[in-house]
Structures are given as C-alpha cells and as structure tokens.
Specification:
- The chain is mostly helical.
- It has seven helices and two strands.
- It has helices spanning 2-6, 12-21, 32-39, 43-51, 81-89, 102-105, 112-117, and strands spanning 30-31, 64-65.
- Helix 3 packs across helix 4.
- It is globular, with a radius of gyration of 14 Å.
Length: 134
C-alpha cells in the first residue's frame, strides 16, 4: 500500500480504488461495481482505473471483472486473454461461457470496520445478505 500512497501521478480517487484492489486475495475476484460501491464512484471509473494501473505498482488488476463474471472486453472488442490466464493461474475456474462462479471465487471485501476506519462506503449494496460476510 505504501507505493500507492506515495505515487504522485495518481489521483486521490485512483489511489482509493487501487488500495481496495490490492486487498483482493489470489484466486478471488471482485466486480467493477463492487469496488465502485465502496469507493462511491461509477463502475466505469473503476474500469478506467484498472486500465491505467502503473506497472510499478504490481497491482492485481486482473482480479476485477464484470458483474456477469466475465473478463470485460478491451477497446479492440476482445476480452483480455492475459487477464483470464492470470486468473486461471491462481486457480479461478471459468465455465464454457467464460464466466467465473461467484459462489466459489467472490471476494466479499474488507470488513466493515476497515472500510469505516479508512473512510470508504460502509452501506451494504442493494440485495446484500449479511450471511455473505460471515
């Protein structure tokens, strides 16, 4: 996290996004919307932030996928084969339609006390079930 905090070329918003993404453990995934909910921005902004990750941060950007459980398409219209391969190398499985099973690989985020202590949104998203955090 120290690298994120001391990197001057990052906006405060991107720093907050990257701080959360850095917490996603190997073999787990988060969605653009999930990160956006905690940061209080749009999922599109999270996507832009993932596309702009400086290499020196060594951030696990590949662990952020779309709400369908898929690797999002890039500007050329094709999904990132690198992102899928990085996830598979960590043990994330994809079905025949190219989707991740969220029951097996979903990251449920940091604890609410961490979110609150670090000034992130602690309100649960619509449809959130408390048992998911157990």
């Amino acid at each position: 996290m120290r690298d994120i905090e001391t990197t001057n070329e990052l906006s405060p918003l991107y720093k907050r996004i990257y701080t959360l993404v850095e917490l996603i453990p190997p073999a787990q995934v988060a969605t653009y919307g999930q990160i956006a909910e905690m940061v209080t921005c749009s999922p599109r902004v999270v996507g832009y932030a993932m596309a702009a990750v400086p290499e020196h941060l060594n951030l696990p950007w590949h662990r952020v996928i779309n709400s369908q459980g898929k690797v999002s398409v890039r500007s050329d219209g094709a999904p990132s084969t690198d992102q899928r391969q990085l996830l598979q190398d960590e043990g994330v499985a994809f079905d025949k339609r190219g989707r991740v099973n969220f029951d097996e690989a979903a990251w449920h985020g940091p604890e609410w006390d961490w979110l609150q202590a670090n000034d992130y949104n602690v309100a649960p998203p619509a449809g959130y079930k408390r048992s998911q955090r157990a």
